C-alpha cells in the first residue's frame, strides 16, 4: 500500500504540470489544445537531443525544452490560433486547427527522430526506502522539480501583473480589453506558458519512461481526463484532476493489467460526468 501511495504522488506531480498547461490555454483562449501532448513529446525529444547527442548537462536540456516549446506555442498562437479566432465565430474551427497542429507536429517528429523510443540515463542514482516502499532517487528528483514548478506557476498566476491579467482574461475577455490590457499579448504569453509546462513535463519524464513520436495522443488524452475531472479552465481543478488520475493509475496498475486499468478509469469517468458534467470545481454555467 505504501508503494502505491508513493507511485501515486509521483504520477500526480508529473501530471499536474501537463494539466496546468492545458488549463491555462483553455481558460485564457477557450481552446482545447489537442496538440498539448505533442508539445510534451517535443520537450522530451529536445532534452534527449541536448543531453545525448550534444552531451550537455540535463539542466541545459530542460531549460532548452522550456524555452523552445514555449516559443513554439507562442508562434502557433500568434500565427494560427489568433487569426482563426479573429475571423471565425465557430469554436469548432479552433478545435480542428488544434487537431491539425497535433498531426503536423507528430509527423515532423516522426520524420526527424523516427519511431524509436528515446530516453536518457537517470540524472541521479540510488534508491530510498520509505517504510515498505522503494523510491528511486531519480523519481524523487523529478517529483521535487515538478512541485517547485507547480508552486512557481501558482505564484506567477496569483501575484504578478501578467498572471492577474491572465486570470481576468479567463473570466471576461471584453471587460479585460476595456481595462486597457493587451489581450493579444496576454493570450500569446498564456499559450506559451502552457506549452512550456508541457515541454518541461516531457523533459522530466524522458528520464523515467522515455518518449517516442507517437506518445502525444496518449498524453493529450490524459490531459483531457484531468480537466474533465477537475473542471475545465479551473487551475485548482486541474491539480485535483492530476491527483485523481495519478492515484487511479497507481492503484489500477498495482491490481490490474494496464489495459484493464484504463478501461476502469474511462468507465468511472463516464459515470462521474453523468453526475457532474462540469467537473468537481467547474461551474454549471461555464
List its traits.
286 residues, two-stranded antiparallel sheet, 76% helix, single chain, globular
The number of E-state strands comes to 2
Q: Report the mean per-residue pLDDT as an integer.
A: 89
Tell me the helix content.
Answer: over 70%
- Radius of gyration (CA) equals 19 Å
Number of distinct helices: 11
Helix and strand sequence: HHHHEEHHHHHHH
Helix-and-strand structural type: mainly alpha
Domains, number: 1
**Alpha carbon gap, first and last residue:** 38 Å
Strand content of the residues, in percent?
under 5%
Q: How is the largest sheet built, in terms of strand order?
A: 1-2
The assembly state of the depicted protein chains is single chain
Query: Major β-sheet, in short?
Result: 2 strands, antiparallel
Low-confidence stretches: none
**Could you say which overall geometry the principal axes of the C-alpha atoms support?**
globular
How is this structure best described in words?
- The structure is a single chain.
- With 286 residues, this protein is an all-alpha fold.
- The chain has one domain (2-120, 127-213).
- 76% of the residues lie in helices and 3% in strands.
- The chain has helices spanning 2-29, 36-53, 58-87, 91-113, 137-159, 161-171, 173-178, 183-205, 216-230, 235-255, 258-275, and strands spanning 127-130, 133-136.
- It has a two-stranded antiparallel ribbon.
Q: How would you sum up this structure in a few lines?
A:
The chain is mainly alpha-helical. 76% of the residues lie in helices and 3% in strands.
Q: Topology of this structure?
A:
Blueprint: H1 2-29, H2 36-53, H3 58-87, H4 91-113, E1 127-130, E2 133-136, H5 137-159, H6 161-171, H7 173-178, H8 183-205, H9 216-230, H10 235-255, H11 258-275
Antiparallel strand pairs: 1-2
